[in-house]
Amino acid sequence: MFDIYLPIAGMQFNALILIAIGFSVGVLGGFFGVGGAWVVTPALNIFGFPMAYAIGTDLAHIFGKSIVATAKHRKMGNVDMKLGLLSIVGSVIGVEIGARNVMWLTKVGYAGPVVRYTYMVLLFGLGIYMLYDYLTKDKRAAAQAAKAAAAARSGIATPPRKAWNLPPMIHFPASGITISFWTVTGVFLFTGWLSGFLGVGGGFIRMPALIYLIGCPTAIAVGTDLFSVLFSGAYGCFTYGVKARVEIIAAILMLFGAAVGAQIGVTAVKYIRGYGIRLLFAIMIILAGSSVALKQFNFTTTAGFVVMAAALGMCVVIMIQLYRGFQKEKAEKAAMLAREELS
Amino acid sequence: MKKLSVILLNFFLLSLPTLLWAAEGLDVPEELGRKVDLTNLGGINYFFAKWYNDNLWVYAIIVTVLMGVMGLVIALGTDVILKMVGMETHKIEHHE
Questions:
Q1: Which chain B residues have a beta carbon less than 8 Å from that of A77?
Q2: Which of B31, B46, B64 sits opposite A243 (nearest CB)?
Q3: Neighbouring-strand partners of residue A14
Q4: Do A182 and B96 touch (CB under 8 A)?
Q5: Is residue B4 part of a domain?
Q6: Cβ partners under 8 Å of residue A19, min gap 6
Q7: Interface check B28 vs A, CB under 8 A
C-alpha cells in the first residue's frame, strides 16, 4: 500500500519501512552521537534494498540527520565546536592512512580476516570495557574519596595525576578541558585510522574516545561526535553521488523519519546521566559485535535481524527513559509551583 | 633549550603521518555505469533521474546541497514548532 517508485534504484519499495529505519537510526544517532550506518545497511539489506545503493544512500541521509541532531545538541550546550573542527584534521589523515593500509593488506591477501577480526575485537573490547567502567564507578569513586580523606588527615597533598603536557596546549571551554594539541590530534588520527581500516563512519569509535582519551563529559562527547559525523556524512554523500550510488528519494524518506527520531534521541540525553548513556552504548555495541560475529560465520540474515532487533529495542528503552524523565520533570515543576503558592 | 626541544619534537610529530603512509593508492569504487529509464517518469523523479544519467557530478552536488538544505530547514522548523508548544530546548547541566 505504501510502495513508492525509487527512480535511481529502479524498483518499488515500501516508504514506511524507509521512514521507520530512518526514525530508529535518528533516535540512536541523536542519543549516542553516531551515524548509524551499521544499523541501516543490514536493515536495508533484509528488506530487499539494492546493496549497491545502500551505503551511499545511508551517508546522504546521515548528512541531513546529523545537521538536525547537531543543531539541537548545540542548543543544549553539548557541542564543542572547537574540538569538533580540530577532530576533522586528524580524522581525515587517519582515514586515508587506514584505507591505504587496507589496500596493502588486500594486495598481500590478508584484508578480509584481519579487518573482520579487528572489528569484532574492537566492538566486544570497547563494549566490555564500558560495561566494566559502569559497574565499577561507585567503587572507584569511594576509593578516590577515601584516598583524598586520608591525604587530608595526614596533611600531605595528593600528587596530581601525570599528564602529557607537550605544547601547544589548547583550552576547550565547552568541554572544560585543557589538553595538548598532540594528544587530541593523536587520538583522532587513531580513531580516523580505525574508521578507514574498518570501512566505517567512526561515530561509535570517536564517542568513547572523546570520553576516555580526551576527557569530555558524556553529553558533550555525544554532541561533538555528531558535529564530526556531519562533515564525514557530507563528504560521503558527495563522493558516493559521483559514483552513482545514492538513491535520493530513499534518502529523503529516511531523513524525514530520522528528523523525528533525532528530536527524541537528543531530548532523552537531558534526562539520562552520563553513565546511563555509557551503559546503553556498551550494550548496543556488544550486540553489534554479536551481529558481526554471526555474519563472520555466514549467518548473514540472522545477523541482520539481530542488529535490527537491537536497534529497535534500544529505541524503545530510550523512549521509555525520555517519557519517565519528562513525567518526573513535570511533577517537580508542579511541586515547585505548589510550594510557591503556599508561601 | 627546553623550548628548542619542544619545537623539534613538534616538527617530528608533524612528519609522522607521511612516514606512516602506505605505498598503495586508494582503490575507489567505480561508477555503476547504468542509465535510468526515463519513460513514465515525471516531476521530481524525472529531474533526479535526468541528472543521474547526464552528469553525475551535478547529480552529486544536487543531492548533497538538497540533503544539507533539508537538514537545516527541518532543524529550524522543529525549533520554531517546539518553541510554539512550549518545549523549547535549553542548555543542560552535565552530570556523569
A1: 91-92
A2: B31
A3: A3
A4: no
A5: no
A6: A253, A254, A256, A257
A7: yes
Residue whose C-alpha cell is 569504487: B29
Cell numbers linked to A342: 503556599
Nearest CA distance, B2 vs chain A (angstrom): 11
Q: Would you place residue A252 in the very low, low, confident or very high pLDDT band (cuts 50, 70, 90)?
A: very high
Its domain, for residue B81, covers: 57-89
Spell out the residues 6+ positions from residue A32 whose beta carbon is closer than 8 angstroms to its own: A203, A204, A207, A222, A265, A277, A280, A281, A284
Contact between B70 and A166 using a beta-carbon 8 Å cutoff? no
Domain count, chain A: 1
Q: Is residue B65 part of a domain?
A: yes
Whole-prediction pTM:
0.79
Q: What is the DSSP letter of A158?
A: P
Give the total residue count for chain A. 343
What contacts 24+ positions apart, CB below 8 Å, involve A110-119?
A115/A197, A115/A198, A115/A199, A116/A292, A116/A296, A118/A197, A118/A198, A119/A198, A119/A200, A119/A289, A119/A292
How far does Cα A338 stand from its chain's mean position? Answer: 41
- Rounded CA-CA distance A157/A164 in Å is 21
Cis previous bond, A42, omega within 30: no
Q: Is the pLDDT of residue A121 over 50?
A: yes
> What is the average pLDDT across A294-311?
81
Asked if residue B64 belongs to a domain, the reply is: yes
